[in-house]
UniProtKB/TrEMBL annotation:
Gene Ontology biological process: amino acid transport
UniProt protein name: ABC transporter permease subunit
Annotated PROSITE patterns: ABC_TM1
Membrane topology per record: Multi-pass membrane protein
Residue segments, region Disordered: 1-22
Homology family: Belongs to the binding-protein-dependent transport system permease family.
Secreted as UniProt keyword: no
Pfam families in alphabetical order: BPD_transp_1
């Protein structure tokens, strides 16, 4: 049996204590050769793709750049941008109204909002664009007046009709307005769900606390609910804007002859250079969506300042 005095760490130990001042251990990083192999394969594929872009005569880059900045195409770009802005503006306003109706608690308003969202989210936008483009088959004229005038006016001995305003449907719903209306109404259904989710993401306790302090409902919505809901609403709204920009190509099927994709397609059909014009359409949409993505990034940072400040304080306190 070993006595306590003979232990290494005991007070009476005869063995020297281990030297703890040795050099630190050098960590050797783990090698991942498969990463270099994968990187080499990707570089080879990228080089093959660039070679195809530069050498394949089907692209015809001089012809493409000559026509993709022509006057009709530039006008088509502005029409596409205007359709995107107007459709999103109408869609956002309509989405706010539908979201408030859905959250109102009134069963009639809830039912109307749900039915609208159900219909316009279920029907493809291409079908809606063609449907609104042919709406004159259903209504030759659009008028405002007293209902059932064909029945009660003859009983009163009156002639004519009780219409205060009337317009021909073909005059009102041109290709551009019909397509714009289809896109805007469809977008309203999607924005209603996005805005509803944003409003519901705000803790109800904050609203109750603000009401206890005597704040009005409009001020609570403006100062408390909306600023926090925007952090949830902005990212999907940015995605919807980019999707709307691309969906404006559906106006070519109404048809809207001054739209970007229609103009590029017309040039390709007229010159028998269809593929270069399709590539030009891709380049135009990529350029515009890239600008929108940059704007979305800065807008998200603008509404995320408070959250980032809290995270920075937490990280700073941890250090």
């Amino acid at each position: 049996m070993t006595s306590p005095s003979s232990s290494v760490d005991g007070p009476g130990s005869r063995e020297p204590a281990p030297d703890r001042s040795s050099a630190p251990i050098t960590a050797v990083p783990v090698r991942y050769p498969e990463r270099w192999v994968a990187a080499g394969v990707v570089l080879v594929l990228a080089a093959m793709f660039v070679n195809m872009l530069l050498t394949n005569p089907a692209f015809d880059w001089p012809f493409m750049f000559e026509h993709m900045f022509s006057d009709p195409v530039v006008r088509g770009v502005w029409v596409t941008l205007s359709a995107t802005v107007l459709a999103m503006l109408i869609g956002v306003l309509l989405g706010i109204l539908l979201a408030v109706m859905r959250l109102s608690g009134n069963p009639v308003l809830v039912g109307v909002s749900w039915t609208y969202t159900w219909f316009f989210r279920g029907v493809p936008r291409l079908v809606l664009a063609v449907l609104f483009g042919n709406i004159a088959i259903l209504y030759s004229t659009i008028h405002i007046g007293l209902p059932f005038d064909n029945y009660w006016m003859p009983l009163l001995g009156l002639e004519g009709d009780a219409r205060f305003f009337e317009i021909n449907t073909r005059t009102l719903l041109t290709g551009y307005t019909a397509g714009l209306l289809a896109l805007a109404l469809s977008e309203g259904a999607y924005m209603a769900e996005i805005i509803r989710a944003g409003l519901q993401s705000v803790d109800k306790g904050q609203t109750e606390a603000a009401q206890a302090l005597g704040m009005s409902r409009s001020r609570i919505m403006r100062r408390i609910t909306l600023p926090q809901a925007m952090r949830v609403v902005i990212p999907p709204t940015g995605n919807e804007t980019i999707a709307m920009l691309k969906d404006t190509a559906l106006l070519a099927y109404v048809p809207v002859t001054i739209e970007l994709f229609y103009q590029l397609q017309a040039i390709g059909t007229r010159t028998y250079q269809i593929f270069p014009m399709l590539v030009a359409a891709c380049l135009w949409y990529l350029a515009i969506t890239s600008v929108l993505m940059v704007g979305q990034y800065f807008l998200e940072r603008r509404f995320d300042r408070g959250e980032r400040g809290v995270r920075d304080r937490i990280v700073g306190g941890a250090h």
